[in-house]
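Re: the request from the purification team.
They wanted to know what the chain is likely to look like in 3D before they choose a buffer screen. I agreed to run a prediction and write the result into the notebook, where they can find it.
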Amino acid sequence: MTVLPLSPRERRVVVVGGPADPIEAKAAAGRTWAYYGSDANGFERLINPIGSRMPPNAWYRLGSVPTGAERTARAPHWGRIEIEPTMPATEHYFVTVLVLGDAADQQSANGSCEVGEGITVRLALGEERVEISLSAPAGKGGKIRIGEREWRLPTDVAPDEPWPTR
Protein backbone atom coordinates (compact mmCIF):
# COMPACT_ATOMS: atom_id res chain seq x y z
CA MET A 1 0.00 0.00 0.00
CA THR A 2 1.22 3.48 -0.84
CA VAL A 3 -0.03 6.62 0.92
CA LEU A 4 -0.30 9.50 -1.53
CA PRO A 5 -1.06 12.79 0.31
CA LEU A 6 -2.36 15.45 -2.10
CA SER A 7 -3.68 18.25 0.11
CA PRO A 8 -2.66 20.44 1.80
CA ARG A 9 0.00 21.13 -0.80
CA GLU A 10 2.50 22.46 1.74
CA ARG A 11 2.69 19.68 4.31
CA ARG A 12 4.84 17.59 6.58
CA VAL A 13 4.41 13.80 6.54
CA VAL A 14 5.75 11.84 9.49
CA VAL A 15 5.64 8.15 10.31
CA VAL A 16 5.34 7.91 14.07
CA GLY A 17 6.22 4.78 16.00
CA GLY A 18 7.08 1.46 14.51
CA PRO A 19 7.11 -2.21 15.37
CA ALA A 20 6.60 -2.48 19.08
CA ASP A 21 8.09 -4.87 21.58
CA PRO A 22 5.79 -6.91 23.79
CA ILE A 23 5.35 -5.38 27.22
CA GLU A 24 3.64 -6.89 30.20
CA ALA A 25 0.29 -5.34 31.05
CA LYS A 26 -1.84 -6.05 34.08
CA ALA A 27 -5.36 -7.22 33.40
CA ALA A 28 -8.31 -7.89 35.67
CA ALA A 29 -7.74 -10.17 38.68
CA GLY A 30 -3.98 -9.49 38.62
CA ARG A 31 -3.32 -11.53 35.48
CA THR A 32 -0.69 -10.28 33.05
CA TRP A 33 -0.54 -10.60 29.29
CA ALA A 34 1.81 -9.61 26.48
CA TYR A 35 0.70 -6.30 25.04
CA TYR A 36 2.24 -5.06 21.78
CA GLY A 37 2.46 -1.35 21.97
CA SER A 38 4.48 1.31 23.64
CA ASP A 39 4.80 2.39 27.20
CA ALA A 40 3.06 5.22 28.99
CA ASN A 41 5.05 7.84 27.05
CA GLY A 42 4.70 6.09 23.71
CA PHE A 43 3.44 7.46 20.42
CA GLU A 44 0.13 5.60 20.27
CA ARG A 45 -1.19 7.29 23.40
CA LEU A 46 -0.57 10.83 22.17
CA ILE A 47 -3.70 12.93 22.02
CA ASN A 48 -2.16 15.67 19.83
CA PRO A 49 0.09 15.29 16.76
CA ILE A 50 3.73 14.39 17.31
CA GLY A 51 4.83 17.90 16.25
CA SER A 52 3.17 19.47 19.31
CA ARG A 53 5.33 20.57 22.21
CA MET A 54 4.75 18.27 25.18
CA PRO A 55 1.66 16.56 23.70
CA PRO A 56 -0.68 15.15 26.35
CA ASN A 57 -0.74 11.39 26.69
CA ALA A 58 -3.78 9.19 27.41
CA TRP A 59 -2.04 6.06 28.74
CA TYR A 60 -4.64 3.98 30.58
CA ARG A 61 -6.52 6.79 32.24
CA LEU A 62 -8.71 4.13 33.83
CA GLY A 63 -5.78 3.02 35.97
CA SER A 64 -5.58 -0.50 34.57
CA VAL A 65 -6.37 -2.44 31.43
CA PRO A 66 -10.18 -2.73 31.14
CA THR A 67 -11.72 -6.20 31.35
CA GLY A 68 -11.64 -7.88 27.97
CA ALA A 69 -8.89 -5.62 26.61
CA GLU A 70 -6.42 -8.50 26.62
CA ARG A 71 -7.97 -9.50 23.28
CA THR A 72 -6.47 -6.38 21.69
CA ALA A 73 -2.92 -5.40 20.73
CA ARG A 74 -1.84 -8.98 20.06
CA ALA A 75 0.57 -8.29 17.20
CA PRO A 76 3.31 -5.74 16.43
CA HIS A 77 2.23 -2.76 14.36
CA TRP A 78 3.86 0.05 12.41
CA GLY A 79 2.52 3.10 14.17
CA ARG A 80 0.66 5.82 12.34
CA ILE A 81 1.12 8.39 9.61
CA GLU A 82 0.61 12.06 10.49
CA ILE A 83 0.06 14.70 7.83
CA GLU A 84 0.06 18.28 8.97
CA PRO A 85 0.03 21.59 7.07
CA THR A 86 3.17 23.69 7.23
CA MET A 87 1.47 26.93 6.18
CA PRO A 88 -0.98 28.68 8.53
CA ALA A 89 -4.54 29.04 7.25
CA THR A 90 -8.05 29.41 8.62
CA GLU A 91 -9.01 26.05 7.10
CA HIS A 92 -7.31 23.11 5.43
CA TYR A 93 -8.62 20.31 3.25
CA PHE A 94 -6.88 16.98 3.74
CA VAL A 95 -6.97 14.66 0.74
CA THR A 96 -5.01 11.41 0.91
CA VAL A 97 -5.21 8.53 -1.55
CA LEU A 98 -4.35 4.97 -0.57
CA VAL A 99 -2.98 3.05 -3.56
CA LEU A 100 -3.27 -0.72 -3.50
CA GLY A 101 -1.89 -3.07 -6.11
CA ASP A 102 1.39 -4.44 -7.27
CA ALA A 103 4.66 -2.60 -6.70
CA ALA A 104 4.74 -1.10 -10.21
CA ASP A 105 1.27 0.46 -9.79
CA GLN A 106 2.22 1.89 -6.44
CA GLN A 107 5.51 3.36 -7.67
CA SER A 108 3.94 4.96 -10.74
CA ALA A 109 0.99 6.49 -8.85
CA ASN A 110 0.84 10.26 -8.80
CA GLY A 111 -1.87 12.84 -8.45
CA SER A 112 -2.95 16.38 -7.81
CA CYS A 113 -5.67 18.15 -5.88
CA GLU A 114 -7.20 21.52 -6.67
CA VAL A 115 -9.34 23.34 -4.12
CA GLY A 116 -11.44 26.27 -5.34
CA GLU A 117 -15.17 26.38 -5.99
CA GLY A 118 -15.02 22.64 -5.40
CA ILE A 119 -12.41 19.95 -4.97
CA THR A 120 -10.91 18.11 -7.94
CA VAL A 121 -8.57 15.16 -7.51
CA ARG A 122 -6.70 13.82 -10.54
CA LEU A 123 -4.83 10.51 -10.33
CA ALA A 124 -2.60 8.59 -12.69
CA LEU A 125 -2.39 4.94 -11.70
CA GLY A 126 -0.25 3.19 -14.28
CA GLU A 127 -2.11 3.65 -17.58
CA GLU A 128 -5.41 4.44 -15.84
CA ARG A 129 -6.58 8.04 -15.33
CA VAL A 130 -9.06 8.92 -12.59
CA GLU A 131 -10.73 12.25 -11.84
CA ILE A 132 -13.00 12.94 -8.89
CA SER A 133 -14.75 16.31 -8.79
CA LEU A 134 -16.84 17.41 -5.83
CA SER A 135 -19.00 20.51 -5.81
CA ALA A 136 -18.16 23.37 -3.48
CA PRO A 137 -17.73 22.06 0.04
CA ALA A 138 -21.17 23.34 1.05
CA GLY A 139 -22.71 22.06 -2.19
CA LYS A 140 -23.81 18.68 -3.42
CA GLY A 141 -22.95 16.45 -6.32
CA GLY A 142 -19.95 16.04 -8.50
CA LYS A 143 -18.59 13.34 -10.80
CA ILE A 144 -16.18 10.45 -10.97
CA ARG A 145 -14.38 9.72 -14.23
CA ILE A 146 -12.29 6.59 -14.80
CA GLY A 147 -10.78 6.55 -18.25
CA GLU A 148 -13.64 7.42 -20.63
CA ARG A 149 -16.44 6.38 -18.25
CA GLU A 150 -18.14 8.97 -16.08
CA TRP A 151 -20.62 8.79 -13.21
CA ARG A 152 -22.52 11.71 -11.72
CA LEU A 153 -22.79 11.90 -7.94
CA PRO A 154 -26.24 12.56 -6.47
CA THR A 155 -27.31 16.09 -5.69
CA ASP A 156 -30.13 15.02 -3.39
CA VAL A 157 -30.12 12.36 -0.73
CA ALA A 158 -33.36 11.28 0.90
CA PRO A 159 -33.74 8.90 3.81
CA ASP A 160 -35.51 5.60 3.28
CA GLU A 161 -39.05 5.37 4.56
CA PRO A 162 -39.26 3.67 7.96
CA TRP A 163 -39.93 -0.06 8.01
CA PRO A 164 -43.46 -1.07 8.91
CA THR A 165 -43.86 -1.91 12.58
CA ARG A 166 -46.46 -4.65 12.01
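For the purification team: Residues 1-13+84-157 form one domain.
Please add any questions underneath this entry.
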